[in-house]
Design goal:
Number of strands: 10
Structural class: alpha+beta
Low-confidence stretches: 52-81
Distance between the termini: 48 Å
Order of helices and strands: HHHHHHHHHEEEEEEEEHEEHHHH
Radius of gyration: 22 Å
Number of helices: 14
Shape: globular
Length: 406
């Protein structure tokens, strides 16, 4: 994927990183503009299906295909057929490259657009829904958001209270969502709501919800500790009417669909962490090599260079776990345990690396002028969003059959 990696880095270097500081100050990046650029280059639909039944290159053929295909030909292919039809490992490769963006908020928002709001729609949505919502999301013409979390239901998805009551050929939606990434700019939401009474794992459905409908109220943009360039909204629904044909798949299967989406979301999150952690370690090496304390560089202290070596080793171990999990996933295996392990490790390692490296920067690390302080704030979310560390531990224990039964 040499050509694609170069193009990704070119887009990041020219279209994103020069403006990150400005977007961080403003508390929002221009999602439509950025996503359109990424969509035109094909990065929002790497593992999404083509619109027509045209044969696409296999995974093993892809590298050769890329070397033999001009960028102009590739763009025509993407524009005509939507997604690229490749496996999820290529989406992970893109996620790693997006880690070169010098903040955490933008890669997170891209992850929502490319791999969190759309997997269920891709797998279970009708052709009509895919044409209306998936295709323009892949191209970057529409901004998507994911409506799962609520004030009283974050990691505990089964406890959501938002309802979608069937009335004729419509659903009437009431309730609210919290922590909605890109919620202030989104054109549509992949909404999880209770569509019936009964068991909380079998009474929920996913619905494609246009965000311009009457009764949708974006009450505020949440002021966050980190991820500042990504807008995060609190949203309320008051008798919002949406056509019943906007249901994704089967009614009552929403919880199951969302659990499937979570695995890709968590793996994407792990992938986007790797490059920032490497960058922080390298920038810390560069800084401590030239910073003098008591007549010698900080890096000369064994406690410093040994610690950086330990952290670099941990990052490589996390990468190996991620790659093993992805290999199993593309072969069709259930990777819930390994994905949860990778998500847990990524969150904890992000805290460990940023905290240790910030310490070596001394007073400079406590300013907003250096990257390590930004990632210290941004990557703290990895242990919370998409399932807390404690939730990951419970899932792992369940698969190990060590979780106490209720």
């Amino acid at each position: 994927m040499i050509n694609r990696e170069k193009e990704t880095l070119w887009i990041i270097d020219k279209e994103i990183n020069p403006f990150v500081d400005k977007w961080e100050e403003e508390g929002q990046f221009p999602a439509h503009k950025v996503f359109k650029t990424l969509g035109q280059a094909g990065f929002l639909g790497v593992d999404k299906p083509t619109e027509k039944n045209r044969e696409v290159p296999s995974v093993t053929e892809y590298s050769v295909y890329m070397l033999q295909t001009s960028l102009c030909q590739l763009e025509h292919y993407l524009l005509e057929y939507g997604g690229m039809g490749l496996d999820f490992s290529y989406s992970i490769a893109v996620a790693e490259e997006l880690g070169s963006i010098r903040c955490g908020g933008i890669p997170m928002a891209i992850g929502v657009q490319a791999g969190m709001a759309t997997p269920a729609l891709t797998r279970f949505g009708s052709d009509e829904l895919k044409k209306q919502f998936l295709t323009p999301t892949i191209s970057g013409d529409l901004v998507a958001c994911l409506g799962i979390s609520e004030p009283g239901a974050g990691s505990d998805v089964a406890s959501i209270k938002t309802t979608a009551v069937r009335k004729g050929d419509e659903y009437v939606i009431n309730g609210g969502k919290m922590w909605t990434t890109s919620g202030c700019q989104a054109d549509w939401m992949c909404l999880l709501a209770n569509t019936s009474e009964g068991h909380p794992h079998r009474n929920k459905s996913l619905i494609c919800l246009p965000m311009n409908l009457p009764g949708i109220h974006i009450t505020k943009k949440i002021d966050k500790l980190g991820m500042r360039s990504s807008d995060t909204a609190q949203i309320f629904f008051e008798d919002v009417r949406v056509p019943s044909k906007n249901l994704i798949g089967e009614e009552g299967m929403g919880f199951t669909y969302q659990m499937l989406q979570f695995q890709e979301e968590r793996l994407w999150g792990v992938a986007t962490v790797l490059t920032p952690l490497e960058t922080i370690i390298q920038e810390t090496i560069d800084y401590t090599r030239q910073r003098k304390v008591f007549g010698q560089s900080v890096l000369q202290n064994q406690a410093v260079h040994f610690r950086l070596a330990e952290l670099a080793t941990e990052v490589e171990l996390l990468r190996s776990l991620l790659y093993r999990t992805i290999a199993l996933y593309v072969e069709g295996n259930d990777v819930t345990k390994f994905a949860s392990m990778a998500k847990l490790k990524a969150g904890r390692l992000a805290r460990e690396v940023t905290d240790s490296c910030l310490q070596f920067w001394g007073g400079m690390g406590f300013t907003s002028e250096v990257l390590v302080s930004r990632f210290y704030r941004d990557l703290r979310l990895v242990s919370i969003g998409g399932g807390t560390d404690e939730t990951m531990l419970s899932i792992i224990c369940k698969h190990m059959e060590t979780l106490p039964r209720k």
